[in-house]
């Protein structure tokens, strides 16, 4: 028979730990976010549905995005034990300079629509973290203002080729004069993909005050207050726009773009030239032969052609075709530091993350983006240690295979 007794106060007292309440609401909610998925949950609560869906969604049936996530879930790690992993090196050479972590912030459009601090907040975090930041042609802060927000940050400018070539040349000139180190040409957007969440939500840029958005605003008053009381959305590359994202893309982007336009940019741009949106090995070889210094394997986060190739599965054939002639990067579907480690082990030079930091931005502004970096950095470090690897440069295919 179990004997029971009432506990003494001296026995209870060590167990009673009163947690000091956190008065700062941003700090309080970010402290509860331990993964990127946690940040996504917070972002969904704090952001109007149409805006959250613009970030979270993909094209048509969203098959490409689901497959990207599934490909990372198929990774099987193969750890080595009895290794001294008390200290690990997470840095990586990217475009000839060391990045403190093996990823960059991807260029994202309409960033200040997600949260009013926008690109300035993101580039400041990138500067402190020692990683590159990409500014999109469709960003909502000007090339010069991003440069002044973090003068020492490594900045890449992402370019879409417009029907107006003179306007494109002007953007390249401004980026060069503002100290951007690399130009990223995106080639997977000759026309807009069918992003059905945006269509069903009736999303416009900037969001319109309709009955639906007013009702949604009642549950997201802080977001609407910030949108309406801060500077109007200013784009990196045009003064204003009122309409849908698809209308903007189809009006301004040039569907006649060919490899000759890559050669045109190679003649304009003196620094590293990256081509983003490559989805097969032959195209990777082609753009490298025409002047690209790096290639980003990307299906635009699943936001253009649905059922497009999965980048993690495509990676080996591209590495075989390109060899050491260019650096190969990868994006789409990355939701953890372990995903980044897997991509590096499979041969990628580095990764680009977009949705991950946008979830952080929506969840807590600049501090939310910093929390994204903390989470990914911690996961990368822990994954390396558990693999028995002391540097990302020591990762090989033997550390990560794809299960059938």
TrEMBL record:
EC number: 1.1.2.3
Keyword Zinc (UniProt): no
Domain FMN hydroxy acid dehydrogenase: 28-404
Domain of life: Bacteria
Residues annotated as binding glyoxylate: 54, 160, 195, 300, 303
Database matches in Gene3D superfamilies: Aldolase class I (3.20.20.70)
GO MF: FMN binding; L-lactate dehydrogenase (cytochrome) activity
Annotated InterPro entries: Aldolase_TIM, Alpha-hydoxy_acid_DH_FMN, FMN-dep_DH, FMN_HAD, FMN_hydac_DH_AS
Entry keywords, A to Z: Flavoprotein, FMN, Oxidoreductase
Membrane spanning stretches: none
Pfam families tied to this protein: FMN_dh
Database matches in PROSITE patterns: FMN_HYDROXY_ACID_DH_1 (PS00557), FMN_HYDROXY_ACID_DH_2 (PS51349)
Residues binding FMN: 107-109, 136, 158, 186, 276, 298, 331-335, 354-355
Cofactor: FMN
Active site residues of this protein: 300
Family per similarity comment: Belongs to the FMN-dependent alpha-hydroxy acid dehydrogenase family.
Record's protein name: L-lactate dehydrogenase (Cytochrome)
